[in-house]
Design goal:
The structure holds 2 protein chains of 2 kinds. Chain A is an alpha/beta fold. Chain A has 17 helices and 6 strands. In chain A, β4, α16 and β5 form a beta-alpha-beta unit. In chain A, α1 runs parallel beside α9, α4 (87-112) packs parallel to α8 (214-236) and α5 (121-148) packs parallel to α7. The N and C termini of chain A lie far apart (76 Å). By secondary structure, chain B is an all-alpha fold. Helices cover 82% and strands 0% of the residues of chain B. Chain B has 4 helices and no strands. Chain B is flat, with a radius of gyration of 18 Å. The chains are: A alpha/beta, B mainly alpha. At the A-B interface, α1, α2, α3, α4 and α8 of A face α1, α2, α3 and α4 of B.
């Protein structure tokens, strides 16, 4: 049975694992193949793990088992219990620990090899790159988690104009430590200095970014972790790390780009600082002295019941209020009354692209009813009532009409084109972008204030009574 | 060895682009979570460095933490993705 420990056999298992990763990711293309795709990718991971453990000369078994047991004891319950609304911060956290693991491995490699003096130069460079990016990812993700979990204020925190020079300085210091190590520095403090400055950089990068941009940042950090895993793979001469890390690096970059595009934000602008706090120009509509039209649950119910076509525009407010099941009940009732109902999903509805789909799928809304922005935008003009539930910036016509608005140019749902609009809202507080919404002052719009879930519930009760 | 690995690196990057660019918007959150789980593969790095002889208490402690972190990444990532996707699947059954 010695062949099981052979290099060729292990490499073959790795190849099987890659095939499963790629095939699994391809499965994630469609909603009906995605579950299997994810399982196949997980199977691939299992095979890669077994292959690695077959490496000849493996020891320290108890410590390996201890690490895996600790990780499983934390990871399994966390993944099982997390609420669907808290998914973005959970992904941030899982991403962060991955980055942390890479930084720690790079640190041990440094200590192990007397500052890489016994290794080729490229090993040192790749490890140090992995250490810097891994640390940024770990601390950046932790801050992102803190903001989304509302442990920390979600608004941008920045040191003002000094932010960029400070970030740049941190990066330069971290790289300088790296250069000294590559040049032959062996003091352990060099590596500690590198890790500390990279960690501070991670914190400094994410702190000034507002809550609305957080999904883009998480996705960016996800890609970064992938790249640093690939770099670690180069350093350790391990094909599995190279391939899997690089696939994640590439996919994460694409995803980040798509998200940023959907929000009309450029990635450099996001990293440079959040909405509101600095710049962004005017664009804020004076709200104070203008009146909005309020409505009651009873009136809203009548309006909906006599509509031919209703479009529901769900936003983060719906997710926060856990109102997806109540909304499903309401739309079911409307369908019974012969009203055609569709859901208009903005690419960044919720907190991440696709997040809203997950929440609505949880509430048994048929996948076919969920319409993406491009396919439904022309429908609004033919729609009697648009029901906006806890969405704000993605319905703001200022994105089309007001070049001075910070959200100008962002693709939006053309809610303002429908014959009437009912907005369920907690208060007149502006959305994440900190911009007032012109839609609310439109004479065709009426607002129903209150918690999204109880408002929807009230409308449903009124509908039943009709 | 470096050149071969770099070739693999570049090709893997293109595979990543090709596979991912076909995924519809609606599945981006599960996808992000799934790819997130895959970079948990760093746990293998922990196995190799620890298993092939790490010495000293600090090194061992750091590696055990690294393996625990990597395991959280892998296990948590795949489980969370599965939970998210399970919701799409259930719906398929009811719509039939």
């Amino acid at each position: 049975m010695t062949w099981v420990h052979g290099e060729a056999f292990i490499q073959c298992l790795y190849i099987v694992a890659f095939a499963l990763f790629i095939y699994g990711l391809m499965g994630l293309t469609g909603p009906y193949t995605a579950v299997r795709g994810n399982k196949l990718a997980a199977l691939g991971m299992g095979i890669a793990i077994i292959a690695t453990l077959l490496t000849p000369g493996m020891g320290n078994w108890w410590l390996i088992v201890l690490g895996v047991a600790l990780g499983a004891a934390v990871g399994v319950p966390a993944a099982r219990r997390v609420r669907m609304t808290a998914m973005p911060q959970m992904v941030a956290l899982f991403n962060g620990v991955g980055g942390g693991a890479i930084a720690l491995i790079a640190w041990v490699e440094f200590r192990h090899s007397d500052g890489f003096s016994s290794r080729p130069e490229y090993v040192a460079i790749a490890s140090l790159f992995a250490a810097i990016v891994g640390s940024i990812s770990f601390w950046g993700s932790t801050i992102a988690f803190g903001k989304l979990q509302e442990i920390m204020p979600g608004r941008p925190i920045s040191v003002g104009r000094l932010q960029q020079p400070l970030n740049l300085l941190m990066l330069l210091v971290a790289v300088a430590f790296g250069v000294i190590v590559v040049a032959g520095g062996q003091s352990g403090w060099l590596m500690v200095g590198l890790l500390v400055t990279a960690s501070m950089l991670g914190v400094l990068i994410v702190l000034p970014i507002g809550g609305a941009d957080m999904p883009v940042v998480i996705s960016l950090l996800n890609a970064a972790t992938g790249l640093s895993a690939a770099a670690m793979g180069l350093a350790l001469d391990n094909t599995a790390l190279i391939v899997a890390g690089m696939i994640v690096g590439a996919s994460g970059s694409i995803l980040t780009n798509l998200m940023a595009k959907a929000m009309n934000r450029s990635i450099p602008a996001i990293v440079a600082g959040g909405f509101g706090g600095n710049g962004g120009g005017g664009g804020a509509v004076e709200a104070g002295d203008r009146s909005v039209r309020r409505t009651s649950a009873a009136d809203a119910a009548i309006q909906l019941a006599f509509a031919r076509q209703v479009i529901v525009v769900p936003g983060y407010g719906l997710a926060v209020a856990q109102a997806q099941h109540a909304v499903r009940q309401l739309t079911g009732l409307l369908e019974q009354k012969g009203v055609s109902v569709a859901y208009a999903i903005h690419p960044v509805a919720g907190r991440m692209p696709g997040h809203m789909n997950v929440l609505l799928a949880e509430a048994d809304v048929p996948y076919e009813h969920l319409k993406e922005m491009d396919s439904i935008n022309d429908e609004f003009a033919r729609t009697d009532v648009t029901l906006v539930i806890g969405a704000n910036d993605v319905t703001n016509p200022a994105a089309r009409t007001d070049p001075s608005s910070p959200i100008y140019g962002m693709p939006i749902l053309n809610v303002d084109e429908s014959r009437s609009v009912i907005v369920l809202k907690r208060s007149m507080r502006p959305g994440f972008a900190g911009v007032d919404n012109e839609l609310y002052f439109d004479p065709r719009t009426s607002l129903l204030f209150g918690d999204a879930k109880s408002s929807v519930h009230d409308i449903t009760e009124e509908l039943k009574a009709l | 060895m470096l050149v071969q690995n770099l070739a693999v690196l570049v090709l893997a990057g293109f595979v990543g682009f090709a596979v991912i660019s076909k995924v519809p918007n609606t599945l981006h959150t599960p996808l992000m979570s799934g790819t997130n789980a895959i970079h948990g593969i760093v746990v293998l790095g922990g196995f190799i460095v620890l298993g092939l002889g790490a010495e000293g208490v600090l090194n061992k402690v750091l590696l055990v933490i690294a393996i625990a972190f990597g395991t959280i990444n892998v296990v948590g990532g795949f489980l969370v993705t599965d939970r998210m996707l399970g919701m799409f699947k259930e719906k398929k059954d009811t719509s039939k």
